[in-house]
Amino acid sequence: KIPNALWANLIQERLSNVDCIKQGWILEGFPENREQAWMLQSSGIIPRHVGKQCKVYTPIKSSSSLLISVCLLEVYHTTFNWPSDLLVQQRLVKPEDLSEQEVSKKLLEYHRNFPGVFQIYQKVLKSINADQPSVDV
Fold first, then answer.
1. Which domains are seen in the chain, by residue range?
2. What is d(CA 124, CA 118) in angstroms, rounded to the nearest whole number?
3. Which of 8-12, 17-21, 129-133 has the highest mean pLDDT?
4. Which of 8, 48, 52, 121 has the most crowded CB, counting CB atoms within 10 A?
5. Mean pLDDT of 126-133
6. Which parts of the chain are beta strand (E)?
7. How many CB atoms lie within 10 A of CB 31?
8. Could you report the per-residue pLDDT of 23-67, keeping only the tens digit for each?
């Protein structure tokens, strides 16, 4: 586990780069809890939009369909986001930490921690139906 203060410093450092300032940024999977959200805010990192996934069963159902490209550091989905490049398809591997049990554990932690995070970001919170193709999301 990385201490929250270190996370906040690392993220603040990265978001101060020119590309993030000009093009914007997306944090996925962070903050994970209220303390991390407060640390981001105290570091001056305040998002304009915060997304909330609506379908509870989607991560478990979809996790078995996720594949990653180690070379490109990209995530693909067998149904919603399949790469057209045959070479990329051949390099795809299934992540080791995406068993149904592991995803269920992460989902439980998400439901425990996120009411506090959502409370902090309630003015910029958007609900997203993630049980659809990524292009529609």
1. 1-63+101-136 (3.40.50.300), 64-97 (no CATH)
2. 9
3. 17-21
4. 8
5. 71
6. 50-53, 66-69, 74-77, 92-93, 125-128
7. 26
8. 999 887 788 889 999 988 888 888 888 877 655 444 444 445 555
Average pLDDT of span 57-83: 57
| 136 C-beta neighbours (distance < 10 Å), count | 10
Q: For residues 121 and 45, is the Cβ–Cβ distance under 8 A?
A: no
Q: Mind listing the pLDDT tens digit for each residue in 84-128?
A: 888 888 888 776 666 677 767 777 887 788 888 888 888 888 877
CB 5 within 8 A of CB 13: no
Find the largest Cα–Cα distance for the chain. Answer: 45
pLDDT of residue 131: 67
| 137 contact partners, CB below 8 Å, separation of at least 6 | 128, 129, 130
Q: Which two tokens stand for residue 94?
A: 């299934």
How many CA within 13 A on the CB side of residue 119? 9
For residue 31, is the peptide bond before it cis, meaning its omega torsion is within 30 degrees of 0?
yes
